Amino acid sequence: MKLKKSKDSEITVLLALQKIVKVNKQITQITNDTKKAIELHKEQITILEGVVNIDEEVLKGKNKVRKLLDKAKSDLTTLEEEGMSNKVQKEAHHKSYTLQRG
Q: Helix, strand or coil for residue 23?
C-alpha cells in the first residue's frame, strides 16, 4: 500500500519524536540500572520502527528517522555490551537536546 503525504503523516512522526525525547530524558536520569536502560532503548526502537516508513516514503526522510533508528540500535548494542555508563547518559542527553532543537 502506498502511503500518502498528509498533515497527519507529519504530525504522527513529530509525535513519535516527542516520545523519543521523553524516553531519552528518562535514560539520562538512570544511573546504574542497565536493565531499565535497555528496556527504554527497546521502547525507543519500537517507536521509531513505527514511523520510519512514513518518514522515508511520505516525508522523503525529512525527519531523519532512519538515522535515529540506526543510532538507537547501535546504542542498544553498546548498552548490552558495556552496561549503563556516563557515556550512555551523555549520549541520551545529547540526542534529547538535538531533537528538541529540531
A: helix
For residue 44, give the C-alpha cell.
525507543
- Tell me the three cell numbers of residue 99: 531533537
Report how far residue 33's alpha carbon sits from residue 54's, in angstroms, rounded to the nearest whole number: 33
For 101, the grid coordinates are 532543537
Domain ranges of the chain: 7-101
Q: pLDDT tens across 42-61, in order?
A: 999 999 999 999 999 988 88
Q: What is the model's pTM?
A: 0.81
The one-character DSSP state at 5 is: -
Task: Give the Cα separation of 79 and 39 in Å (integer).
Answer: 11
Q: What does the pLDDT average to over 67-81?
A: 91
The span from the CA of 13 to the CA of 30, in Å, is 26
Q: Alpha-carbon distance 66 to 82, whole Å?
A: 24
- Residues 51 and 38: their CA atoms lie apart, in Å, by 21
